[in-house]
């Protein structure tokens, strides 16, 4: 049971981090910018 919770916790952290990166890209594109993947910045 504890092993299952640990695995779920790790997966939630990994997918949460990916979600934050995706959200930055999505927000940039929604407001008319272009997202530079190399610098990880929004260019307007």
How would you sum up this structure, described in words?
- By secondary structure, the chain is of the alpha+beta class.
- The protein has one domain.
- The protein has one helix and two strands.
- Strands 1-2 form a two-stranded antiparallel sheet.
- β1 and β2 form a beta hairpin.
- The longest helix is centred in the middle third of the chain and has 29 residues.
- It starts with a helix and ends with a strand.
- The mean pLDDT is 87.
Beta-strand content bin: 5-15%
- Please count the helical segments: 1
Spans of at least 5 consecutive residues with low confidence: none
Instruction: Tell me, briefly, the overall form.
Output: rod-shaped
Whole-number average pLDDT?
87
Integer count of domains: 1
Helix/sheet category: alpha+beta
Major β-sheet profile: 2 strands, antiparallel
Query: Could you tell me the number of beta strands?
Result: 2
- The end-to-end distance, rounded to whole angstroms, is 48 Å
Q: Record the strand order, biggest sheet.
A: 1-2
Please trace the helix and strand order, writing H or E for each element: HEE
What is the CA-based Rg, rounded?
15 Å
Please estimate the helix content.
Answer: 55-70%
List the helices and strands and how they pair.
Elements: H1 2-30, E1 34-36, E2 41-43
Antiparallel strand pairs: 1-2
């Amino acid at each position: 049971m504890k092993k299952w919770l640990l695995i779920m916790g790790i997966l939630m952290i990994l997918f949460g981090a990916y979600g934050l990166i995706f959200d930055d890209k999505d927000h940039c594109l929604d407001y008319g910018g272009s997202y530079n993947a190399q610098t990880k910045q929004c260019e307007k």
